[in-house]
Amino acid sequence: MQQNGEANANTGRAGRVVLTAALALLAISVATSGRTQEHAGEKPRWWSPGDGATLPELAVYPNASGHLGILNAGGPVDTRGHPFFEPIGTNGRACVSCHQPSDGMSLSVQSIRERWEETQGADPIFAMVDGANCPNLPKDDPASHSLLLRRGLFRIAIPWPPRGADGKPFEPEFDIEVVRDPGGCNTDPVYGLNSPNPTISVYRRPRVVANMEYVVHQNFGVSPFVGKTGEPALRDPETGKPLNMNMMADARVVTLKSQMNDAARSHLEFAGRLTPQQVARIEAFERQVYAAQVDMGAGGSLVEQDGPPGLGPYNLLHGARGVLGNNTTRWVIPMGDAWQSAKPDETAETRRMRESILRGQQIFHFRTFWIRDSMHLNTVGLGNPTKRTCATCHGMHMTGLDTVNGWMDIGTTNLPWAKEAPRNPWQTEDELMPLFKITCRRSAHPHPYLGRVIYTQDPGRALISGRCNDVGTIVMQQFRGLAARAPYFSNGSAGSIRELIDFYDRRYNIQYSDQEKIDLGNFLAAL
Amino acid sequence: MRMFSVSAVLALLAAGPLQAEEQGRLAFVACPIVQDTPTVPCWLVEYQGKTYYMGIQTDVSAPFNPPSLGHKVLVEGTPTDREICGAQVIEPIRISIIPELSPECDELRMARPGVDLGFDPPRPPGPSRGRLAFDYLDPPPVPQAPFAVRNFTVDYDFEGMVGFRTPRILQPALEYAQQSKASRLEVTGFRGATRLSDGKLLEEHAGIARERAEEIVRMFRGAGLDTEFVIRAGDEAIEGGPENRKVDIRIVP
User: Fold this and answer.
1) Which of A48, A214, B174, B191 is the S-S candidate for A399 at Cβ 3.0 to 4.6 Å?
2) CB-CB: which of A223, A240, A446 is closest to B167?
3) A457 Cβ contact partners less than 8 Å away, ≥ 6 residues apart
4) pLDDT > 90: what percent of chain B?
5) Cα distance between residue A360 and residue A467, in whole Å
6) CB contact A379 to B (< 8 Å)
7) Pick from A307, A304, A299: which is nearest to A348 by CA?
């Protein structure tokens, strides 16, 4: 029951097709800005691989909160022959299959369900390699794709034991056992942990492929040693420079180049390596595409020329990359003065929404709570607990990323906080996620908050580092385009922005009032 | 990899702790306590019926980093006659979070009238209003030739290994090794022991000296330093203060 309600945040497609007055408003504000041609798509368009159309300079797509804008700073993108948009692998998928412009360059579970219905499961996103709970299941049965259809999760296969930078396996600090395996893959004789190629399958959401200059910045905090743990940072194989390690849920690949080769091999079943031309085109595309909400429906435009400096894709294009925003000289998401007082042409509904967003921004930056037992935050010198705010962890200006090495454990995948289906005689749904038991060896320190035995749905960074205290740490994602891409968190456990806020409220005993939740929710949806 | 004896160092340091003891130095293990205030929380600890103040929550870059509920804390320091948050200030202070879990350490005292810092904390609990708690230092000048042998010391909490404070030392050391094209790095690990105020000796585990040295070498290798490393470690625990929990790095150009 609980699970069926998981991703009902968005209204149905019909709801999204309706063109609101706000869209007209947007068209005007964009046109008057004179910075681009306007394009007002009336329907969240599905980009099929090899579609061949042109992605306009500014593409606008409806979502439940208003509209999202995809800005191509390099001008309209001719997708014909473009390796991000063409099915260059063997399974008919393109990068765009899972990184859809209308979904904030991620992929909402709503779009996934619509594709299943429209194509009876034939869309290449359902390819068995990772679009099913396990490749050995019957292809046409929706139950084989339950993690994708219900939570928007693709299978990520990680070799075990972990491999070092030299590609050689090394001894992890812990042992791992499979406790529960609803997808069947972790216990499978061909694909599982005890197969000839021991592999752990975890299930994760696609991440936003936009605003990437922020994700891969080389600015504040990037140094040879990771500032949170002291370990050596991964280095760019081309330049030898240390990297910020802020990409993917586990930072297993952290340059755009290495990531795209990994994606092509795993998701597209592409044999060999991408050509230098393909690499250059994908990277150029990724570095110039920006995504952010552009209006809140009747709640008004977010991209007026004198509007808040933290909102909309244009401000992302012009923002400072990779700098801390956790101070009042430079906010994480700056709002400026534009909305402080009503404008002559502002409707009452727009006014109410703007005031709510402003309050939400204040809550995000200033509402304190006790952050407790969160690995790689409470361990970096602030104390445990530390009385701080959302902006403490989500500190990077314009994106809410951490500036470096954003893997932390807030309890999204580790028990006791991770979402688990309640068990009782009346509950018919089984839990979807696998469950692993991690036992930290005596030779390592125990995990400072979870001890030596940890149950987790996704060990996260620990599958790469082999470290006990990395179990369940997940690299945080950027905050942009949230309204277009539910569900949230790497394991899709928050079906809506409200559920995400409720998670934090439970996890840190924040005791938000209902109004605070609404305001914080509007603020997040406006990003 | 050769072993070398630390007994010479041991003799040298033997006089240290005694002197400190005479000046009222305290060393004890207890549960930390969080005392909230209208601004940032204070961190307190009780020992033999007295409540002591260890420090406040500030910032990653602060000289004092608070301990952790759920763990005991080793406190090494000298009480003063000042009071903050209604407790006697220990300063200088060195604290170490004991790695094993102690769920009984779970006391968070709410803010109440009369309990105050009495000063503006360098960093409020939210975003700093236009200032940073501690200025980030400009990077030191790139080391220039001629290069001589240079020593760096990594210090540790009790039972501590590489952590968030280590890069502040490893980074300049790495830079010096790279710039001087070091022919060799001699990395020497030490194991400490603290005489507690109740007379017990608290020793770091046997083998930690070598583990520390090996870990530091892994850090340098991982950061791309391709040179000869000589690992040394003594197995005896050196009795004294925090200064004995360390790794010495000798960079030979």
Assistant:
1) A214
2) A223
3) A202, A413, A414, A418, A433, A434, A435, A436, A491
4) 77
5) 37
6) yes
7) A299
> Does residue A385 have a cis bond before it (omega within 30 degrees)?
yes
Look up residue A395 and give its two tokens. Answer: 């500190």
Token code pair at residue A430: 């089984």
Q: What is the 3-state secondary structure (H, E, C) of A98-112?
A: HCEHHHCCECCHHHH
Superfamily per CATH, domain B150-252: OmpA-like domain (3.30.1330.60)
| Cβ-Cβ contacts under 8 Å, B62 against chain A | 381
When pLDDT is averaged across residues B214-242 and rounded to a whole number, the result is 95
Series of mean pLDDT values for 10-residue runs along chain A (527 residues): 34 33 40 38 80 96 97 97 98 98 98 97 98 97 97 98 92 98 97 97 98 95 90 92 96 96 97 96 98 97 96 97 84 95 94 98 97 97 96 95 93 97 86 97 95 98 97 97 98 98 98 98 98
With residues binned 3-state (H G I as helix, E B as strand, rest as coil), the percentages for chain B, rounded to 5, are 20, 35, 45
Distance CA A328, CA A351 (A): 24
By C-alpha distance, which of A331, A369, A335, A333 is closest to A355? A335
Separation between Cα atoms, residue A371 and residue B249, nearest integer Å = 36
Complex-level ipTM: 0.89
Please tell me the distance from the alpha carbon of residue B248 to that of residue A287, in angstroms, as a whole number: 44
Q: Which residue of A231, A238, A370, A396 is the best one to mutate when testing the B interface, meaning the one whose CB has the most B CBs within 10 A?
A: A231
Mean pLDDT of B127-151: 76
The partner residue sitting opposite B171, judged by closest CB among A224, A372, A449, is: A224
Please list the residue range(s) of chain B that carry CATH number 3.30.1330.60. 150-252
Give B79's strand partners. B90
A407 contacts A467 by C-beta, under 8 angstroms: no
Q: Quick one: pLDDT at residue A397?
A: 96
Token pair 């980074």: residue: B171
CA angle B42–B43–B47, rounded 5-degree value:
135
Q: Is A157 left (phi over 0), alpha (psi -120 to 50) or beta?
A: beta
